[in-house]
Structures are given as structure tokens and as C-alpha cells.
Amino acid sequence: MEYRMSSIIKAAAKDSQLLALIAEKSFIESHGRSAGQEVIDSYVKEKFSRDAFKEELSSSQNIYHIIFHDDQPAGYSKIILNSAHPTIPIKNVTKLERIYLLKEFYGLQLGLELFEFNLNLSKQQDQEGMWLFVWKENQRALSFYKKNKFRIIGSHDFKLSETHANPNHLMFLEY
């Protein structure tokens, strides 16, 4: 078996174009069928542009990481520390806002590696749990989070446009 190397780097403003490319492709791969093409295209254009990432990276509360496999960008994550949720009684919790992996890298355990990296980072910052929203129809993601001990504690309508929202689970992992 051939050994392949992965690495995780903290993203900076200079990475905004790379993040935009990974984000667009991975979002369409995982959520492209969740709404009509026009809604998806508009959402991607607004949320995953280079400028949108530049702006997000300028805020110290948004912590982005990119995972590489054999020097190829494979996915990225975004967490926000101390991001309380009204239904979670603990205040020092981390929001796992995004963790996306490009489909061509599925099956290599890179999603797990990126998740565990963020989990450890969260714990090192004295957080007591992690929460996220996951689209109810994304069985792959739901299975992944359940396997990693997250539990469903509520629901949320994730707004893609003024006229379209996707039903999401609110999931929580207490440390």
C-alpha cells in the first residue's frame, strides 16, 4: 500500500481564491440537488466568492483550515469558538460552521482527520462542546456526525434564498 501524505494549514486572506474554488465545488457536490439550479447558483455566488472569503478571513472569530492530500487541496473547515446557541445551556461551545471535502477525496479519512483537528483545537481553547447544522437529506454527513457522537437536539431551516430553505438538524457534541 502506497503511503500518502496529508497536511492541514490555517487559511489566510491569500487563500481566499482557493477556498472559493473548494467551497463552490464541494457545496454543489453535497447540496446541489437541495434546491433549484438558480437558487444554488445564486447562493454559491454570494457565499463562496473570493471576496466573501476575504471578508470572512478578516474577522479573527472565523477560523478556517484547508486540508491537502498529496499537495492537492482536498477540503476545508470553518469553526467559530465561543459561539453560543440559544438551545444549548453551555456558553463556551464551538460552532462547526463548515466542513467540506471534495468528492474525489472521499474514502481517504480526510474528513475525519479535519474534524478531529478542529475538535482538538476546540478542546485546547477550553470549549465544552461543539454544535452544527446538517441538512436532513445529507445522509453521508448525518452518518459521519452520529458516528462521532453528535446527537440531534433540534431543527433549523437553513435559508438558501428568500424563497427556499432546507430543513436541517441541530446536532451537538458535549465534551
Number of strands: 7
Number of discrete helical segments: 5
What form results from the Cα inertia axes? globular
| Strand/helix succession | EHHHEEEHEHEE
Provide the helix percentage: 25-40%
As a percent range, the share of strand residues is 25-35%
Rg over C-alpha atoms, rounded to the nearest angstrom: 16 Å
Distance between the termini: 35 Å
**Spatial order of the strands forming the largest sheet:** 1-2-3-4-5-7-6
The fold-level CATH name of the domain at 6-124 is Aminopeptidase
Mean pLDDT: 95
State the CATH superfamily name of the domain at 6-124: Gcn5-related N-acetyltransferase (GNAT)
CATH top level of the domain at 6-124 is Alpha Beta
Main beta sheet strand tally, sense and closure: 7 strands, mixed
Which segments are poorly predicted (pLDDT under 50) over 5 or more consecutive residues? none
| CATH architectural grouping of the domain at 6-124 | 3-Layer(aba) Sandwich
Instruction: Output the structural class.
Output: alpha+beta
Detailed description of the structure:
With about 180 residues, this protein is α+β, with helices and mostly antiparallel strands. Helix 1 crosses helix 3. It has helices at about 15-30, 35-45, 50-55, 110-125, 140-145, and strands at about 5-10, 60-70, 70-80, 95-100, 130-135, 150-160, 165-175. It has a domain at about 5-125: Gcn5-related N-acetyltransferase (GNAT) (Aminopeptidase). The model has no long low-confidence stretch (mean pLDDT about 95). The chain contains five helices and seven strands. Strand 6 and strand 7 form a beta hairpin.
